[in-house]
Design goal:
- Chain B: Its cofactor is thiamine diphosphate.
- The structure holds 2 protein chains of 2 kinds.
- In chain A, helix 1 packs across helix 11 and helix 5 packs parallel to helix 6.
- Helix content of chain A is about 40%, strand content about 10%.
- By secondary structure, chain A is α/β, with parallel strands linked by helices.
- The termini of chain A are far apart.
- Chain B is an alpha/beta fold.
- Helix content of chain B is about 40%, strand content about 20%.
- Chain B starts with a strand and ends with a helix.
- Classes of the chains: A alpha/beta, B alpha/beta.
- Chains A and B meet through loops of A and helix 3 and helix 11 of B.
- Bound molecules: thiamine diphosphate (TPP).
- Thiamine diphosphate (TPP) sits at the interface of chains A and B.
- Thiamine diphosphate sits at the interface of chains A and B.
Chain lengths: ~325, ~325
């Protein structure tokens, strides 16, 4: 992990906030997993435990006006972009107070006020949308940039290739942020592509391709910041590939037969939260006591979210046919 | 006879055909060691190996086109499209290529491809993973469309589909995968275009597909107690449609309700209703033909709303009572 030192992009307060957000994502998902096992959440779910640094790192260098587009594994992106966990939890419980009034669920959370243009259940579905959102920014000279998150598996969809090409020829302010967690469901990236790094694909579209350690929060912020600056200065898109790992299975029904327990153990030694916490302690930005304080606050925030969600009403039948047309 | 699940019946059909014919193979996302998103191909890679149980990248456009290309050159591929919603990405290859090829080439091309895909709601997967889009396919000349409702039908119809020299869309329902039924071990085919009378009756004919067959049978049981005798017909294939079995039943009962899960508006129920209306059976009708279909809403996540979006047993019971009083 790079040195924070004097020329850090962030104040100490901001650094601690990033740690807070990563922990909030982790605990939120652990809670969601538990509620799912208790039968309080239905459907399916995709947890990003282990990948907290990509979400928080990338969003840390964005303004409120900048936009993100998320994936089916999007809880982390939402939280990192400022989406409140109480209304997220309500959405997962299918409640009317949720961000999508209970109609979207885990895979479809959107929070347009915070620049979150929505999660997507279609693999690679977000890339063309992000390209379009960036086109708006350019045509109307709005100055915002768009960060589009997607997984390594998405990069074999036609939409990936077509979007990178389009964004490149139109020189759009969009950052294609690939969270390479090594697997698309059961397909390992090694098995599904014949290149070593997804970032190499950027060359085909004449845009920069950056590789970053996705478990290193500060590295993620640095690389993303550079890409954001390029985009804001009219220099067009960047493809970022962050190497990371999804600790849990793809979704609830995954027996993880396609990978070894040793491999999982190995990646868990690179826990992005532990790494960043140790870094802050090492550089005297955080004390153990202050960390315990953060843990306590996170716990309270999650408890409050669950309480809010559980006490919220479910949507009535009269809402079934609302929100279809303007 | 053995009692096995819908999943096991489908797997058995594929395995038997693969043993019988080297040209038959299966391709799709996560169908290898993972066993497919719904476990349909569980264990198949062990028997047939990775050449014939071919795990693909997440690339619906490519793999659907690849299946068509393999089919026109002498193979008999079965494509597992992970969720029927993703047909949108495979659409060009199915609609513009597979469906038209024989006709455009003056009868020269043979395209024996089966596209198996789970549709339907009830699992809490929300709007991008719960649709019933079979009417789209039924609209396209050159495609056969199958919708088995029982394990017995699933096995026999799938075998017929695999041995058919045309592109066949094979719609499975994700809530039927666990349903059990009697299925003979030996090989048998159910011809495409042959409806099945799931229950005989004299007062009302219900024409129901997929999941709605089971709901209609339940409703029929309840109505029996009230002295209303319901006949339940399952067309099993939308294309070709067994008009005779349906018309014969309507001649007998004089009343007909078409029940299907897909959105009622523009759906296949209208096709069946019109087919009856245009036939000489029209004179036998004692009441206007009724349709019960899904509401015109993207499938909501919330479990209560999800239920309200598609016909339920009570709705079918009510419809039967209404039509009896007409
Ligand atoms: C078009 C499409 N194909 C397949 C799926 C099923 N599916 C959902 S997530 C997923 C894996 C995606 O892998 P990746 O893009 O690497 O993201 P990750 O899950 O690793 O975050 C698959 C195959 C889907 N939702 N959409």
């Amino acid at each position: 992990m790079s040195k924070l030192g004097e020329n850090s992009l962030f104040s100490q307060e901001q650094l601690r906030k990033m740690l807070y957000d990563m922990l909030l994502i982790r605990r939120f998902e652990e809670k969601v997993e538990q509620l799912f096992q208790q039968g309080k959440i239905h459907g399916t779910m995709h947890l990003c435990i282990g990948q907290e640094a990509t979400a928080v790192g990338a969003c840390a260098v964005l303004t409120n006006e900048d936009k993100i587009i998320s994936t089916h594994r999007g809880h982390g992106h939402c939280i990192a972009k400022g989406t409140e966990v109480d209304r997220m939890m309500a959405e997962l419980l299918g409640k009317v107070t949720g961000y999508c009034k209970g109609k979207g669920g885990s895979m479809h959370i959107a929070d347009l006020d915070k620049g979150n243009l929505g999660a997507n259940g279609i693999v690679a579905g977000g890339l063309p949308l992000a390209t379009g959102a960036a086109l708006t920014s350019k045509m109307k000279e709005l100055g915002y940039v768009v960060v589009c998150f997607f997984g390594d598996g998405s990069t074999n969809e036609g939409a990936f290739h077509e979007s990178l090409n389009l964004a490149s020829v139109w020189n759009l302010p969009v950052i294609f942020f690939c969270e390479n967690n090594q697997y698309g469901m059961s397909g390992s990236i090694k098995e599904m592509t014949n290149i070593q790094h997804i970032a190499e694909r950027a060359a085909s579209y004449g845009i920069p391709g950056e590789i970053v350690d996705g478990n290193d929060l500060l590295e993620v912020t640095e690389v993303t910041k550079k890409a954001v600056e390029r985009a804001r200065n009219g220099k067009g898109p960047t493809l970022i590939e962050a190497k990371t790992y999804r600790w849990r299975g793809h979704s609830r029904s995954d027996a993880r037969k396609y990978r070894t327990r040793d491999e999982e153990k190995e990646w868990k030694t690179k826990d992005p939260i532990e790494l960043f916490k140790n870094k802050l302690i090492e550089e005297n930005i955080l004390t153990e006591a202050a960390f315990l304080e953060i843990e306590e606050q996170v716990k309270k925030e999650i408890e409050a979210a669950v309480e809010f969600a559980e006490n919220s009403p479910i949507p009535g039948e009269e809402t079934l046919e609302t929100d279809i047309f303007a | 006879m053995r009692n096995i699940t819908y999943v096991e019946a489908i797997r058995e059909a594929m395995s038997q055909e693969m043993r019988a014919n080297q040209d038959v193979f299966i391709l799709g996302e996560d169908i290898g060691i993972y066993g497919g998103a719904f476990g349909v191909t569980n264990g198949m890679i062990e028997e047939f190996g990775p050449e014939r149980v071919r795990n693909t990248p997440i690339s619906e456009a490519a793999i659907s086109g690849c299946a068509v290309g393999a089919a026109m050159t002498g193979m008999r591929p079965i494509l597992e499209l992970q969720f029927s919603d993703f047909i949108t990405i495979a659409m060009d290859n199915i609609v513009n290529q597979a469906a038209k090829m024989r006709y455009m080439f003056g009868g020269k091309a043979n395209v024996p491809v089966v596209i198996r895909t789970p549709g339907g709601s009830g699992a809490g997967f929300a709007a991008q993973h719960s649709q019933s889009l079979e009417a789209w396919m039924a609209h396209i000349p050159g495609l056969k469309v199958v919708q088995p409702s029982t394990p017995y039908d699933a096995k026999g119809l799938l075998k017929a589909a695999i041995n058919d020299d045309n592109p066949v869309m094979f719609y499975e329902h994700k809530m039927l995968y666990g349903v059990r039924g009697d299925v003979p071990e030996e090989t048998y085919e159910i011809p495409l275009g042959k409806a099945d009378i799931k229950k005989e009756g004299t007062d009302v004919t219900i024409v129901a597909t997929s999941m709605m067959v089971h709901k209609s049978l339940e409703a029929a049981k309840l109505l029996e107690e009230e002295g209303i005798s319901v006949e339940v017909i399952d067309p099993r294939t939308l294309v070709p449609l067994d008009k005779e079995t349906i018309l014969h039943s309507v001649r007998k009962t004089g009343r007909v309700i078409v029940v299907y899960e897909a959105v009622k508006r523009g759906g296949y129920g209208a096709e069946i209703a019109s087919m009856i209306g245009e036939s000489d059976v029209f004179d036998y009708l004692d009441a206007p033909i009724m349709r019960l279909g899904g509401r015109a809403v993207p499938m909501p996540y919330n479990a209560f709303l999800e239920q309200k979006a598609v016909p339920q047993v009570e709705d079918i019971v009510q419809a039967c009572k209404t039509i009896m009083n007409k």
